[in-house]
C-alpha cells in the first residue's frame, strides 16, 4: 500500500499487475475503482466498505469491466447507470452509438441545468423569459426537482395544481386563480416536451384532462371607469402622477410603456411607442410586433406631454418625484391604492385605464380597426373580447368623453369625416338598440343626448 500525491488516495496494487486499480480515498472507508477508458480517467465509488472480502469482490467485477473494454464490448452507460448523463453521452459517442437515457434516469432538477443552458438562454430577452425563470425556481423546482421524468405523471401534476396557493401576503393559503395556475403549467409543459423531444421518449402525456382539476376560481372582470368615476378618482391621485395617468387613459398605454417612454419618442405629431421597462429592465423589443405603434398627438395629449417634458431632466419622460424609474408595483402600492381608498373607488386597477380607453373610444364610435392599431393588437378579436365589455350607462357620458378626448381624436387628419354636428336631424348609431339623434337646436357639445 502506498500514498500518491497525484490521486490523493490509497492505492491497492495487485501482484498480477492487472489493469485498473482499487483505491480508498483518505478519510473514507469505502472502496473506489480507478481505470482509464479512451484515455480518460474514470473513478467510481463501489459503496462497499474496505474489507478483504469486498476487495476480492470488487477486483473480480473490475476484471470483467477491463475484459469487455479490451474486447471493445464495454457499454459504459450500462456498466455505470449512476454516472452523470453527460459522461454517459460522452463515452457513448466514442463507443459509436447515440446515448438516450431513460425517463427513470433523469431528474427534473438535473435536466433543468441543461435546459437553461441550451434552450432558455436562447429565448429573446423579455417578460416571457423572466416569467419562465421565476415560475420554474419558485414553483416547479420545489415540487418536481427530485422527481424523475418517469415519476411526473398526471396524478402528480394534479397534486401540484392542488398545492398552488399563495405563500405569503393577505391571501396566504388561498388557491391561486385558474388563469395563474394555467400560466404556471406552461413552462412545465414546455420543459416536459423539450426533454421528450431531445431523448426521443414516447411517454403518456400527463397534461391531458387537467382542465377539470384547475382551480374553480373565476377571473375578476376588469371594468373601465364611468367618466364621473374617473374625475373623482383623478382628484385623489398625487398631483405629480396626474398627467401620467391622464396620458395613459388618453392613449391606452400601459405601465411598462409609460416607464420606457423617452423624449426621443415624442415626434412632432405622434408618440412612437417602442420601448418598455419591465421589472426595472429596459427592453427595445416589445411583447409583440404590433405593440410598436404610432399614437397621434391630440391637443389633450399634447397638454399632458408638455407637463412631463417640462419637468423631466433626463431622457426618460415618466419618473418618480426623485427622478427614479417609474415602477408599476411601487405605483400601485404608493399611489394608486391611496387614491382608491381616498375616493372610495376600490374596484379598479391601473389596467382599468386601458379598458377605459377602449370603451370610451368605442363610445365615440371610432373605427374599430383604428382602435386596434392604437392599442397595439393584431386583430379586432382582442379588442372586442377583452376590452369590449359594455359599461352600464357609458353612453350617457358621450359628450363629456368627447370634450375630454377632444374632437381631434375623433376626426383624423388622414380622412376628415363630415362634422356630425353639421347635420341636424341625422341619427347616428351608438350601441345596439340605441341611437344618437341631434335636433336642429343642438349645436353645442355641451348639450345632452336624446336616446331612442
From TrEMBL:
InterPro entries given in the database record: DNA_brk_join_enz (IPR011010), Integrase-like_cat_sf (IPR013762), Integrase_catalytic (IPR002104), Integrase_recombinase_N (IPR010998), Min27-like_integrase_DNA_bind (IPR022000), Tyrosine_recombinase_XerCD (IPR050090)
Superkingdom of origin organism: Bacteria
Keyword Kinase (UniProt): no
SUPFAM superfamilies: DNA breaking-rejoining enzymes (SSF56349)
Keyword annotations from UniProtKB, A to Z: DNA recombination, DNA-binding
Tyr recombinase domain segment(s): 213-403
Family according to the record: Belongs to the 'phage' integrase family.
Name of the protein: Tyrosine-type recombinase/integrase
